[in-house]
Specification:
single chain; 84 residues; alpha+beta; 2 strands; 55% helix
Length: 84
Amino acid sequence: MLAVERRRGPCGNRARRYPTYAMATAKQDVRRVLDGLPEGASLEDIQYHLYVLQRIERGREDVEAGRVLPQNEVEQRLARWLNE
């Protein structure tokens, strides 16, 4: 099963895709990220894309563990925070 996440990164205005495969190892994920970057990508670009991949994975883990909020609760929390 393949899922694709799109994000904009510092190495260009193009949307980047972060494919994730069921049961992929961290090393396989890094190789996929590196293969998807241009040859001239800086270390900063690589770090950014690995960071995004890690955050996507953490978000998926949160969803699976039930650590989510309903939309109306998010809106209420944001409204309180923005009004402070």
